[in-house]
Amino acid sequence: MNRSASIVGAGLVGSLWAVFLAKRGYKVDVFERRGDMRKAGFIGGRSINLAMSDRGWKALRKAGIEEQIRQVAIPMHGRVMHSTTGELTYQPYGKEGQSIYSVSRGGLNLELMNIADQHESVNFHFDHKCEGLDMNTCELSFTDTTTGKQNTVDSPLVFGTDGAFSAVRSSLQRRPMFNYSQHYLKHGYKELTIPPNAAGEHQIEKNALHIWPRGQFMLIALPNQDGSFTCTLFLPFEGEESFLQLQSDKQILDFFNKYFADAVPLMPDLLNDFKNNPTPSLVTIRCNPWTYKNKVLLMGDASHAIVPFYGQGMNSGFEDCTLLDQMVDQYGEDWDEIMTNFNKTRIADADGIADLAIRNFIEMRDLVGDPKFLLRKKIAAHFSKKYPDQFLPLYSMVTFSHTPYAEALREGKAQDELFERILAIEDIESRWQSEEVEQIFSSWLNNKQSMA
Ligand SMILES: Cc1cc2nc3c(=O)[nH]c(=O)nc-3n(C[C@H](O)[C@H](O)[C@H](O)COP(=O)(O)OP(=O)(O)OC[C@H]3O[C@@H](n4cnc5c(N)ncnc54)[C@H](O)[C@@H]3O)c2cc1C
Questions:
Q1: Is the pLDDT of residue 46 over 80?
Q2: For residue 126, how far is its CA from the centre of ligand 1 (angstroms)?
Q3: Average pLDDT over residues 146-162
Q4: Mean pLDDT of 57-83
Q5: How many CB atoms lie within 10 A of CB 371?
Q6: Is there a single domain that holds both residue 268 and residue 228?
Q7: Does some domain include residue 85?
């Protein structure tokens, strides 16, 4: 067997998957549209960070680079909510000792490339833009963006990890029986910065993810190693409160002073950032099948791009690598079996996390400040402590466990029914530890177990 593979896209998932394949002794060619970010000195660029959780860590552990990344990751133990009047409320994310971690996206990508590069069998080809796939031969075609020259590459295995607007997927889309959907949110986003203070320290609590929930929109902030925070404003493109309404300096400042007054003094470059940074859109992409001729496989955002509100886009892409690698063990490098089974089992999970991510947007922007929602969290934590083997809050299941996402979505719906009944109890605020609540929980649990 010719143990070689081509990977299209040296982003987070492509670079990590190159490490997995190289560890198995495959010869790997990675083709990336952009130049080598290591030469381009990305470090000076804007810092964008991502929340890494247990599914992501598991994949990095398997690749042997967990410790290296942990050293530069900042633990966020919970959410700090900022009210319009500047009051702060804190909600832990999980049990004592459980955190999500803020990591630099560029820094992580760079480390993954470096680790992949340490394997002699991995070759990166930068400035190589994939133009598509020949559907008869599965040959990939590329344009060298520095010379304009075109070339083709034939490889026994092709992995399309070229992101949400994948060229590999575009070729597959032209085949009959390929299902595809893309759905844009009405919201876009804008990245802003809270710089460090004069001493180089974080200006607000470092070990937390900050949220300014405002109903239809929100601002969030994640910490960086250099003392700064990367903030993201999620706001509708059009409507009463929208990007369209924020054109002049006065409109921008009035909006921020009205809704995020405590953040404004922390952002001296607010106006510049707001006017100069782009306003990208947010898309959910689903497709099926992810495979072609059991020779081509889509992974990461190329097969399942989701909105960022559960912090699971990269994590789910990294989990693709873990699960696929497990299947390589299971099926003894029989790629017909591996691709068939990966396609069969993983798409439902990708759909699950896509739905959960949209649902969490409503929770983050609208509910995290709602007293009933906070009470629900408190009762959920109580059940989880009292019945650790029978009850895991949905957020923990998605973030701190490896339960398949489709199962987590089903559990989330079941937990909604449970809390609907509990929160309907009169004076629930003072009676949440009553016998009545315990009885509702027991009957819910019995019902769930009998259906299983
Ligand atoms: C605002 C925002 C916040 C997010 N926050 C989180 C978070 O907190 N936690 C989390 O887990 N996820 C988060 N995500 C999602 C995460 O960024 C993605 O899921 C992740 O980057 C997907 O990795 P990927 O390798 O599949 O795709 P990408 O990272 O998009 O990489 C694709 C690569 O392919 C290259 N490429 C594209 N087209 C071609 C071509 N034609 N030829 C060759 N190369 C090509 C690109 O240059 C790129 O290097 C967030 C996303 C957004 C937008």
A1: no
A2: 17
A3: 97
A4: 94
A5: 8
A6: yes
A7: no
302: Cβ–Cβ under 8 A, 6 or more apart, which residues?
Answer: 9, 160, 161, 162, 163, 164, 166, 168, 169
pLDDT at 136 over 70: yes
Beta strands in 22-126 (DSSP E): 27-31, 49-52, 74-76, 78-82, 88-92, 100-104, 122-125
304 and 271, same domain (yes or no): no
Check whether residue 69 and residue 207 sit in a common domain: no
Question: Is residue 88 assigned to a domain?
Answer: no
* Structure-token match 């952002």, residue found: 267
Do 194 and 156 sit in the same domain of this protein?
no
Confidence of residue 45 (pLDDT cuts 50, 70, 90): very low
Sign of the C-alpha dihedral computed for residues 315, 309, 374 and 86 taken in this order? positive
- Cβ–ligand 1 contact at 325 (below 6 Å): no
Q: How far apart are CA 52 and CA 228, in angstroms?
A: 18
Output the CA 178–ligand 1 centroid distance in Å.
Answer: 23
User: In the chain, what's the furthest Cα-to-Cα distance?
Assistant: 74
Is ligand 1 within 6 A of the CB of residue 351?
Answer: no
In a domain, 244, yes or no: yes
Spacing, Cα 268 to ligand 1 middle (Å): 29
Asked whether 91 and 377 are in contact (CB, 8 A), the reply is yes
Residue 223 backbone zone (phi > 0: left; psi -120 to 50: alpha; other: beta): beta
Measured CA to CA, the distance from residue 45 to residue 253 in angstroms comes to: 26
Nearest to 282 by CA among 221, 214, 209, 232: 232
Q: Do 260 and 292 share a structural domain?
A: no
At which residue do the structure tokens 């706001």 appear? Answer: 235
